[in-house]
Amino acid sequence: MRISELAEQAGVTVKAVRYYERLGLVSPARLGNGYREYGDDHLRVVREIRELAATGIPPGKARPFIDCLGSGHAHSDECPASRDAYRDGLAELDAAIAQLEARRTLLARRLSGAEHRIPEPMHACGCTVSAS
To answer: Is the distance from CB of 128 to CB of 122 less than 8 angstroms?
Structure first.
């Protein structure tokens, strides 16, 4: 199949397929006229890359999964390197979550401090208005 057919069937753009090629994740055969020729194995790989991206694993980190498929496994995460990549992804998420939680705590603390420093409203006469 041609690159446009592969892209359509995999649910990605032609540009994405070319990017995967530059990363070395997809290596099509070349026809005599120089056109790329893709098979069902390429379709499977591109779909896998797309599914990994949906989990937060970018194409640049998909190599262990694609290598696992290439070695004959039925699933891309049956290999130890793939599971290690999952663990790395989880560690990155945990770090990002911890950073966001720390930022949230800081923002809440600053908001609370700001709210406690607000003086009571004043009348034009200069006397304070009680909130009761």
So the answer is: yes
17-44 exposure pattern, b = at least 16 Cβ within 10 A, e = fewer: bebbeebebbebeeeeeeebebeeebbe
Please report how the helices 3-10 and 14-22 are oriented relative to each other, as an axis angle in degrees rounded to 10.
100
DSSP 120: P
pLDDT in tens, 78-92: 999 999 999 999 999
* Cβ atoms < 10 Å from Cβ of 92: 13
From CA 45, how far away is CA 17, in angstroms rounded?
10
The whole-model pTM stands at 0.77
